[in-house]
Every structure is written in structure tokens, then in C-alpha cells.
Design a protein that fits this description.
- By secondary structure, the protein is of the alpha+beta class.
- The protein has one domain: GIY-YIG endonuclease, CATH 3.40.1440.10.
- Helices cover 36% and strands 15% of the residues.
- The protein contains six helices and five strands.
- A three-stranded antiparallel sheet has the order 2-1-3, sandwiched between helices. Strands 4-5 form a two-stranded antiparallel ribbon.
- Strand 1 and strand 2 form a beta hairpin.
- The chain starts with 20 loop residues before the first helix and ends in an 11-residue tail after the last strand.
- The N terminus and C terminus are likely disordered.
- Pfam families: GIY-YIG (PF01541).
């Protein structure tokens, strides 16, 4: 079934190999969403001094808003329930939104701004990047070694824990 609003760069492997995250992403996202993510991913690879404001979501719709300097490690911590706290207690393990900021101050101010918003405004923000509320964790650059298990959790080699910013 072809849909012109979706783009796919590579066909799904038919030899039993695991599908690459890029091709999986391109099958799941419409062209506008994929283009926006490509811009964000390019920014991520250009600097290691960036800060991120992000939303994690539970399957029941509970949202967790946070700030980090390493989105890959932090999303992995949420998925593996590394830290005790709100996101662990309410099973917020899917990365559904993130935005990039140049300074920590800028990211913290943005987080404070978003925390004041009502639920529907937060949902609209998430849908601007991720209309289907897909888990963006496995699409991030640097997650090539993440293996998704049957239960939907993930495992990856340790790459350092970075800053604890729950």
C-alpha cells in the first residue's frame, strides 16, 4: 500500500537482519516530520555542547518534562528505569518530543515556560514534531547499539551516565 505522504529510503531487509533505525523511521513518519527530525539530528551531530528539553510519555499518557545535556543517555535511563522518581513511578519511558538549546540557561527557561502550560498546549507542542507520538529514542543518532527487546524495553552497552538531571 503506497502512501505519497510517507518517504522511505531503504526497503525492509528480507534476509532476517534487524532493520536499521533510519529505514524504520522513514517508514513510520510522514515527510514533514522526517524532515524536522533530520534538521534536529544534524544539529546534534554538529556540537556536543547542546542542551535538550524533552518529554517522556507513558503508555497511559502521563507526561514527564525534563532538561539534559545528553538526550541519548537520558532517554536510555528513563527506558531502563535507572533513576527512581516520577518518570519511573509512572512508567514514562517513551521519548516523544525534544528540542535543542545552545545554553543550559536557555533550556531551563524553556522548561519552566512549558511547565506552566496546560495539558492540551503541551500535546500540541509534541504533535508539531511527532504527530503519532512514536518513541523517538531508537531514531536518535548514537542509538545504533540499542537493542529493543520483545517487551519494548532496550538494552545497550554502558556509555557513561552523564549528568543526573531528573
Amino acid at each position: 500500500m503506497a502512501n505519497d505522504s510517507f518517504k522511505s529510503f531503504r526497503p525492509r531487509p528480507s534476509d532476517g537482519r534487524a532493520e536499521e533505525p533510519l529505514s524504520k523511521r522513514n517508514r513510520l513518519l510522514d515527510i514533514n516530520t522526517s524532515s524536522r527530525l533530520d534538521i534536529l539530528f544534524r544539529q546534534m551531530t554538529e556540537s556536543d555542547q547542546l542542551m535538550y528539553v524533552y518529554f517522556m510519555a507513558s503508555d497511559s499518557g502521563t507526561l514527564y518534562l525534563g532538561v539534559t545535556n545528553n538526550i541519548v543517555t537520558r532517554a536510555h535511563q528513563h527506558r531502563t528505569r535507572f533513576n527512581n522518581g516520577f518518570s519511573n513511578r509512572y512508567s514514562c519511558h517513551r521519548l516523544v518530543y525534544f528540542e535543542i538549546h545552545v545554553t543550559a540557561g536557555e533550556a531551563i527557561e524553556r522548561e519552566k515556560q512549558i511547565k506552566k502550560w496546560n495539558r492540551s498546549k503541551k500535546e500540541r507542542l509534541i504533535r508539531t514534531l511527532n504527530p503519532k507520538w512514536l518513541d523517538l529514542m531508537l531514531m536518535l543518532p548514537g542509538t545504533e547499539n540499542v537493542v529493543e527487546t520483545e517487551s519494548g524495553s532496550s538494552a545497550r552497552p554502558s556509555d557513561g551516565l552523564g549528568r543526573n538531571d531528573s
